[in-house]
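step=predict obj=Tripartite tricarboxylate transporter substrate binding protein n=324
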Amino acid sequence: MTNRSRRLLGAAALAAAALFHAAPAWSQAYPSQPIRLIVPFAPGGAVDQTARTISGALGRELGQPIVIENKPGASGSLGAADLARAKPDGYTLMLALDSHAVNHYTVKNLRFDTFKSFDYLSLLVTTPQVLVVNNALPANNLDQLVTYLKANPNTSYGSAGTASAGHVNSAQLSLARQLATTHIPYKGAAPLLTDLLGGHVQYAFAGLSVMLPHIKAGKVRALAVSSPKRSAMLPDVPTMSEVIPGFEYPTWIGLVAPHGLPPEVRGKLLAATHKVMHDPEVSKRFAENAFDIVNSSPEAFAARVNKDAAAMGDLVRRKVIVAE
């Protein structure tokens, strides 16, 4: 073997060794570029609020900016389809709303598998659903609302999207009280609120985090909350279960990634998220906006998705909720 051949072989061996040792170094260097956070609803709703509450702190913790991208449509499934197509490298994440767990029942031609296309990292927060009515509606409590709706069966209600918590709660109310009303789905809570204030829909269940300022300003009237106990933000407003036992379905929001995150990336994301969700300033902002911090494990989050999917399956089979 010539000296030149030996030098070439030596150089090749050094290069191979460098590549071998570079792989762990690359994964440890995550993240080395901005991270895209998909919000699959319009700006102004509970998911968007959550993104803007955590993005700054999470970016500082990870050492890279978090770039929020609103991608509304089809009850959050357009954004979820975008996430499912992304590389599982930790640079594309999404905040999922409760409707994500049940869209496979109500949205046609989904381009992903709810249970196989994603890594469920953490259920971050919940917020009570609050039943609100337009001020022109002659109802100051749940019983009065039911009486009005039975006398006016064409009354319309809105939701943040088909199969969202707001839709599920309204459908459950209709089932429990034999109501015949019309559902109007929106691309998020913010456009729903606009039409509720304008009188285009008469009532809605929506996240308390979105509705609270408008309730306090007297622009809409709160009749009940769907949480297990009364909200500290609205202590005089009863729970739905005080009138209809077992009635409980809050809004939840969780952090999701494409399926197949490398373990090192997954670990960094979970550690950073846990630290951010327990940051005093972040906790304060969530509390001020009527969110309850959960920050669950991946296993608990996946279990919640499966639980809600099973509950929705029952409503679909009973034709309480249908695809729109």
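step=describe
The chain has eleven helices and eleven strands.
step=end
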